[in-house]
Amino acid sequence: MQKHPTSYNWKEDPIRKKAKEDIRKLFIDEYNRPKRTPYYISQLQTILEKNYFDRIVYNAAMDLVQDSFLMKLEVQTKYASKMVFFYNKRLENERDKPKVIKHIKSISKLVDKHANPKVTEILGRNLEGLVKYELRAQGFENIKPDSNEFRGKRWTETDHNLDFIAEHKSGKLNVGIEVKNAMAVMDLEEIDLKIKMCRFLELVPVFAVRWIKPHQEHINTQGGFCWVFKTQIFPLGFEELTKRLWHQLKIPVIVRTDLPEKSIRLFENWVKLRTCNH
After folding, report:
1. Is residue 132 located within the same domain as residue 268?
2. In this structure, are residues 179 and 209 in contact, taking their beta carbons and an 8 Å threshold?
3. Which of 185, 176, 115, 134 is nearest to 151 (CA)?
4. In the chain, what percentage of residues exceed pLDDT 70?
5. Cα gap 249→45, rounded to integer Å
6. What letter would DSSP give residue 69?
7. Where among 79, 96, 115 does a domain terminate?
8. How far apart, in Å, are the Cα atoms of 187 and each of 147, 192, 211, 263?
9. What is the pLDDT of residue 8?
10. Please, are residues 51 and 43 in contact by the beta-carbon 8 Å criterion?
11. In whole angstroms, what is the distance from residue 91 CA to residue 71 CA?
């Protein structure tokens, strides 16, 4: 009789173990003393996003809670919903814990300012404006915002639209663009829906986003392009907020009036590749 394979022990997964060590380092100093700085889960995921997917960071942090190295605390906020904080368990004493709680409350207020719907709406419109400008600079015409129609075909399966539909002047490249100026990574379900819309409308899907690494290979295999900016881009007037977000939370935010130069070059090269004469 064939034996069933032994279940894989995810806690012993080398990537997850490495993530645990990298998280552990954030909560201790060079002398192994506990740092009083708490971190919330989205912050940890963003800080470590170049090396680990979100789920790995979350599981590794929870492993450290089970190992009695970290404490977990949930805080309800007005706009950011429930925030899950972690701090070094050695601070769970009468002297240090009040200071940690005070720090957590301060961070929660700052994140709430960032998550205010008025701010997120401004951020979305700002990036849409920068993307539209760059589309024109790269030779795209007939740029239609917030649309689900192209050349006589209309998407009716859901009530979703694409942020932009644009035609390149060469006649060789028509794109459907989804713009997201958010810290969080798009859900795979939403990505697949936008890809399906583009396929129906005979468009090439383009995702203009801060970060999308967990799904980049999936999008590439579907014939799409990931236009990644790495930082959340704020308009003029938000210098003070971005300064506080960067210095206090170490999350990638910046005030700019154009897209990052490297991302412009990558998009320009992709457009040239798709439109050049063979």
Report:
1. yes
2. yes
3. 176
4. 95
5. 12
6. S
7. 115
8. 21, 9, 12, 22
9. 56
10. no
11. 9
Structure tokens at 203: 């468009």
DSSP string, 5-61: PPPP-GGG-HHHHHHHHHHHHHTB-TTSPBP---EEHHHHHHHTTTTS-HHHHHHHH
Q: Counting Cβ atoms within 10 Å, is residue 36 exposed (0-12), middle (13-18) or buried (19+)? A: middle
In this structure, are 124 and 238 located in the same domain? yes
Asked if 198 and 222 count as a contact pair (C-beta separation under 8 A), the reply is: no
The runs of H, that is alpha helices, within the chain are 14-26, 41-47, 54-66, 97-115, 117-137, 188-201, 213-221, 239-244, 261-275
- Residue 260 is given by DSSP the state -
Give the length of the chain: 278
Please give the model's pTM, rounded to 2 decimal places: 0.91
Cα torsion 201, 205, 208, 210: sign: positive
**Of 115, 147, 163, which residue is a domain's last?**
115
The SS3 of residue 2 is coil
Place of tokens 């906020």: 77
Q: Is residue 4 assigned to a domain?
A: no
Residue 5's pLDDT band (cuts 50, 70, 90): very low
